[in-house]
Amino acid sequence: MDICVIGAGYVGLVTSACLAYLGNHVTAVEASSERLGSLKKGIVPFFEPGLQEFVKETIESGFLTFTDSLEGAVKKADVIFIAVGTPSLPNGEPDLSQVMVVARAIGGALDGSKRRIIVNKSTVPVGSGNWVEMLVSQGVQNAQPVPARSARPESPSFTVVSNPEFLREGSAITDSFYPDRIVVGASDDNAVDVMKNLYKPIINQTFEPPSFAPRPAAFQTVPFVVTDLASAELIKYSANAFLAMKISFANEIAGLCEKVGADVRQVAQGIGLDYRIGKAFLNAGVGWGGSCFGKDVSALMQVAKEYSYPTSLLEATVSVNERQRLVVIKKLQEELKILKGRTVGLLGLSFKPDTDDLRDAPAITIAYQLLKMGASVKAFDPVANERCEQLHPNLEITYCDSALTLAQDCDAVVLVTEWALFRNLDWKGLSKVMRWPLVIDGRNVLSEQDVVDAGMTYRGIGH
Ligand code: UDX
Q1: What is the 3-state secondary structure (H, E, C) of the chain?
Q2: 240 C-beta closer than 6 A to ligand 1
């Protein structure tokens, strides 16, 4: 099929490359000339394991092209994906301005040559499927020449569907090829058939797995779930809200474990074996960050507020998470007494490993808090140092290029992001260069024994 994907960010670019790999002709539309420039050269302007090679391959195959001309791409397409950003506004609401501009522009580019499916891939508030339909229709109206009395131009026909994405950064390609489910919200059977056809190779797992994203063992066919528009949008939001709540639950229990001398890792294992609970997303630590959890939870709370509907679980999910980031500060105070004048080294800046994404990253909150308390802050992240320096120029952090230089003259080292690199550091070597031998394991991933054997003090979360 001829596909147009508007927005070549985390979601749009991965979706484009995957659909191109499956043999569709995909045109990705990117408005930012800088990003378009690098994409045309086959360069992916952000870190996502395997994506650089994958995009290059699909460009060379001729199935993936990039353009800034939305009109041309829309006219050619059978299916048009809206995959532009919907970042959070200061009041927590998603900023839908990009969706508005793009939806109207799509309307303006439609012609009567064929019926097209417009797919909401961007996370948009519940009930906005109809809103997108209204915007596209506005675009159609604005573009129509005033019809001569006789000829009534046949108005272009289209239908809007919702197709939320569930990609995790760091594993976006695998999550695209081997999803737990594909959700399509639509009120039109023809549109459902087109989407089912488009995703058939993934539903039936009939495609040849790409070299860097092998099919997981015993991976079966993928459920294709058809719902109404609003339910599909709510599935996206509530999935993320539930995952965020599950993590906040683990973090709340972690605090309790510390009070009663239990170990949250053992508690998580014990409850996670109950299939109704499941062991994933029960890792206590400095809490969740990223571009989705915070945004989606606050968007749900915003929608609820419009109906004065209380969302106590969502409120608690957020407040536990905000408190959790500062747990490492409390531990530093318990061990170092005062933080003023101390030097603290942060291992990791990105909100999770295998990404350079710093959106809502716990490390940033912790760094600002430490600086506010008069401490000096150093940081080492294998990928995100430069991006942090660009995005937070007034954050006075000393950026280091290794754990050893980070540890130099530090009174404490705090592991914030569990990069694989940090899991077996040479603690004896680090201990020699530190001013005070304190390690705070913000993700409970270090070997307490190794740290203690190096003559250091180890503090974890929830144990
Ligand atoms: C999330 C959802 O998982 C994905 O389905 C959705 O499409 C986008 O948002 P992502 O934000 O990329 O994906 O990362 P994820 O792996 O979900 O982690 C989110 C945050 O939770 C990270 O900060 C991570 O460190 C934290 N986390 C995760 C925990 O603190 N504990 C856990 O047990 C798991």
Answers
A1: CEEEEECCCHHHHHHHHHHHHCCCEEEEECCCHHHHHHHHCCCCCCCCCCHHHHHHHHHHCCCEEEECCHHHHHHHCCEEEECCCCCECCCCCECCHHHHHHHHHHHHHCCCCCCEEEEECCCCCCCHHHHHHHHHHHHHHHHCCCCCCCCCCCCCCEEEEECCCCCCCCCHHHHHHCCCCEEEECCCHHHHHHHHHHHHHHHCCCCCCCCCCCCCCCCCCCCEEEECHHHHHHHHHHHHHHHHHHHHHHHHHHHHHHHHCCCHHHHHHHHHCCCCCCCCCCCCCCCCCCCCHHHHHHHHHHHHHHCCCCCHHHHHHHHHHHHHHCHHHHHHHHHHCCCCCCEEEEECCCCCCCCCCCCCCHHHHHHHHHHHCCCEEEEECCCCHHHHHHHCCCCCEEECCCHHHHHCCCCEEEECCCCHHHCCCCHHHHHHHCCCCEEEECCCCCCHHHHHHCCCEEECCCC
A2: yes
